[in-house]
Each structure stands twice: as structure tokens, then as C-alpha cells.
Specification:
The complex is a heterodimer of chains A (162) and B (203). Chain A has 162 residues and is α+β, with helices and mostly antiparallel strands. Helices cover 18% and strands 35% of the residues of chain A. Chain A has one domain: 60s Ribosomal Protein L30, Chain: A. In chain A, the strands form two sheets. Chain A has a five-stranded mixed β-sheet, with no helix packed on it. In chain A, strands 2-5-4-6-7 form a five-stranded mixed β-sheet, covered by helices on one side. In chain A, strand 4 and strand 5 form a beta hairpin. Chain A is globular, with a radius of gyration of 15 Å. With 203 residues, chain B is of the alpha+beta class. Chain B has one domain: CheC-like (Chemotaxis protein chec, 3-Layer(aba) Sandwich), CATH 3.40.1550. Chain B contains six helices and eight strands; from the N terminus they run αββαββααββαββα. In chain B, strands 1, 2, 3, 4, 5, 6, 7 and 8 form an eight-stranded antiparallel β-sheet that branches. The chains are: A alpha+beta (162), B alpha+beta (203). At the A-B interface, strand 3 of A face helix 2, strand 3, strand 6 and helix 5 of B.
Chain lengths: 162, 203
């Protein structure tokens, strides 16, 4: 069977079954949250922009936020046959692209996105098996639904599989 | 409050004109710095869904130089000067009177590009300020050399709080021999856009 690569944009999510791939390109302060059910070989990827839907009035796009994005991602995975109890997570992104000497919370959004993602996953009892987060550089990630491996590519900061 | 996804032609024309005036002043400043002619395109008003944002500037993974500014006081939002790597190298060659193109940007280059960005963004903001009578305070520049998607995620996140679309006023300009092509993005918050319209007497 031919492998397709499904692209996930900013504030977007998607799910797939083996042997297909999910990718999101150029993650900056956003966080790429990947979930994987190894038994059923089902993968999901959400590209979230903001920590919490509760702080914001305009919250219709669920994939925009860590909290609702994860809920929605799980729902979509279960719909195509995943078992919620088998899910494990890998996360990447949450960089601080620009450096300012200010206390502006907006600029620490990467860090806050990571914290909110971890909190939500903990609340749902989903284990984070690996992560590549923080720093000041962008990342492209590719999730392989055949084995759950997450490939991370950067410009000038190497590439790895986590 | 305005809905970004739902602006009428009249409002878009005004945004274009703001881009014209702001970037026109920035282009003049650039021309005098590099002592060359600088041409400017008609500004583009982009209203993009977030998933489309990162495709601006040659694709999400395209290596670019972004210089980012926060705007505060009467007009809140941000501004970004972006250029591709070739343009960045050619620009610093012009500034320092050098010729080699097959090189990396060094610290001196990066500092010079930040300063160019600073001058361009300040002239843009100053012209809008004198046009509207609104105070615009511009932050120090912060520079990042990385994937276009990662860099553009920063201004996009600002919009994420209030909307499902990002509003960008984008102006491209190029030095006469096409060696330097750059984009200036002006991304006012929606409430600031309201203020600008009121200041211009069109709201």
C-alpha cells in the first residue's frame, strides 16, 4: 500500500492509520501534539497555537488550543478505531522564536503551550514517551503511523527521531 | 468589534492605503541607506486562515530572516520585516561594500540587518502615526533566522486570541536590480484597526 503524507496546518488536526504519515511543517511557538495507538496502528497529530480555550472568547476552532485540541484529537482517533487506553504521546515545538527583554506573557507563549499540553495529557492519564521542545528554533515533524516514531527536522539544530 | 473574516472592500482599500504610505516611507529610507533605487508593489491585504499563514513567504520550511517588532500605545499589534537569505546577504554586501555571495551571515551582518529593519519599521510606524494622530510606540528589534512557518507563527498567535483569521498588510519591495526583495508586514490588533478607522474619520 502506498504511503501518503497528510499535512496538518496551524490550528488544525488530523488522524490516520498505518502505513500513512502525518506531518506539520515549521512549528515555532506552536506545539505539535502526536498521539499513537500501537495496537491498532492509529496516529493523530494536532498543531495547537494557544494554551487554553477557557481564557478566550473566540474558541470555536478546537484545534487552536491545547486543551480542546487534545480532546478533539482523541475523539477523531477513537472514531477510526483507536482505543483511548492505548494512547501514548510525543510532543515537539513550543520554541521562543524572538528574544525580548520584557515580561510580556505573549512572548513566552511557547513555554505556556508546552505546560498546558503536559497538564492536559496528565489529566487524561496519557503518558508522554518523548519530547523535543523549547529552544529558539523552528521544527518540522513527521509521525509514522506504522511504528509511532516521530521524526524532527530543524535548520541548523540537526534532525532526530524521538 | 470588527470581524477579520468579514471586511468590506472599502475597509480593505483603506488598509492597502495604510500599507502604501507606511511602506512607501520605509522604501525611501531603505533607498537612502543603500544608495539605490527601491521599487514597491501595491500592498497586499491578506486575510488568512491560520493553516494558510505559514505558506506566505515561500512555504513553511523556507529559510528566511525575520525582524519582529511589538507595537504599543494607541496602536497595538506587531510589525515584521522579512527577507530571504539571498536578499539578506546582498543587502549586507551593499551596506558594507562587499561582493561575496557564497557566505553565511555573520554577527555584524545580523546586527546590520536588525538595524535596517528598525529604521524601516520606524519610518512605517511614524508615517502612520502622523497620518492618524495616534501614538505608536515601537519595541527594539528582535531577529530570527529560521523556517518561515516558525517565524510567522509568532504574529499569527497574537491573532489567535481574538479571531480565526490573521490580518496582514503586506508590501513587497525590491531594489532596482532585484538583488534585495523584502516584505513588511503590519498586523494591527482588531481594536487598533477600529481606532485607526475612527482617527481617519471613516468609521
Amino acid at each position: 500500500m502506498e504511503k501518503n503524507t497528510i499535512k496538518v496546518g496551524m490550528a488544525d488536526l488530523n488522524v490516520t492509520k498505518a502505513p500513512h504519515l502525518l506531518t506539520t511543517l515549521g512549528l515555532g511557538s506552536c506545539v505539535g501534539i502526536t498521539l499513537y495507538d500501537e495496537v491498532n496502528k492509529i496516529a493523530g497529530l494536532a498543531h495547537i497555537m494557544l494554551p487554553s480555550s477557557k481564557e478566550i472568547k473566540n474558541n470555536e476552532n478546537k484545534a487552536k488550543f491545547a486543551d480542546t485540541g487534545i480532546d478533539e484529537l482523541i475523539k477523531s482517533m477513537v472514531k477510526i478505531g483507536a482505543n483511548k487506553n492505548y494512547l501514548v504521546a510525543k510532543i515537539a515545538g513550543g520554541a521562543q522564536m524572538f528574544n525580548f527583554n520584557s515580561n510580556n506573557q505573549m512572548l513566552k507563549i511557547g513555554e505556556r503551550n508546552i505546560m498546558a499540553t503536559k497538564e492536559k495529557l496528565k489529566e487524561l492519564n496519557i503518558r508522554i514517551v518523548s519530547e523535543d521542545t523549547g529552544g529558539n528554533f523552528g521544527r518540522t515533524i513527521v509521525l509514522d503511523s506504522a511504528d509511532g516514531s516521530l521524526y524532527v527536522r530543524t535548520i541548523g539544530h540537526g534532525e532526530k527521531i524521538i | 468589534m470588527l470581524d477579520v473574516g468579514n471586511l468590506n472592500h472599502f475597509m480593505i482599500d483603506i488598509l492597502k492605503e495604510l500599507g502604501n504610505i507606511g511602506a512607501g516611507n520605509a522604501a525611501t529610507a531603505l533607498a537612502s541607506m543603500i544608495s539605490k533605487k527601491v521599487n514597491m508593489d501595491v500592498p497586499n491585504v491578506r486575510i488568512l486562515e491560520f493553516k494558510e499563514v505559514a505558506e506566505v513567504l515561500g512555504g513553511e520550511e523556507n529559510l528566511i530572516v525575520g525582524i519582529y517588532f511589538e507595537l504599543t500605545e494607541d496602536v497595538v499589534g506587531n510589525m515584521m520585516f522579512a527577507l530571504d537569505m539571498d536578499s539578506a546577504i546582498n543587502l549586507t554586501n551593499m551596506l558594507f561594500n562587499r561582493e561575496r555571495n557564497d557566505r553565511q551571515l555573520d554577527e555584524m551582518d545580523i546586527s546590520a540587518i536588525s538595524e535596517v529593519g528598525n529604521i524601516l519599521a520606524s519610518s512605517y510606524a511614524n508615517s502612520l502615526s502622523s497620518l492618524t494622530g495616534l501614538k505608536i510606540f515601537i519595541s527594539v528589534p528582535s531577529i530570527s533566522i529560521d523556517m518561515a512557518g516558525a517565524i510567522l507563527s509568532v504574529p499569527a498567535i497574537h491573532y489567535g486570541h481574538v479571531a480565526d483569521h490573521a490580518l496582514m498588510i503586506e508590501t513587497t519591495f525590491e531594489e532596482n536590480q532585484n538583488l534585495v526583495t523584502g516584505n513588511i508586514f503590519f498586523l494591527p490588533n482588531l481594536s487598533s484597526f477600529d481606532k485607526i478607522l475612527t482617527a481617519l474619520g471613516v468609521n
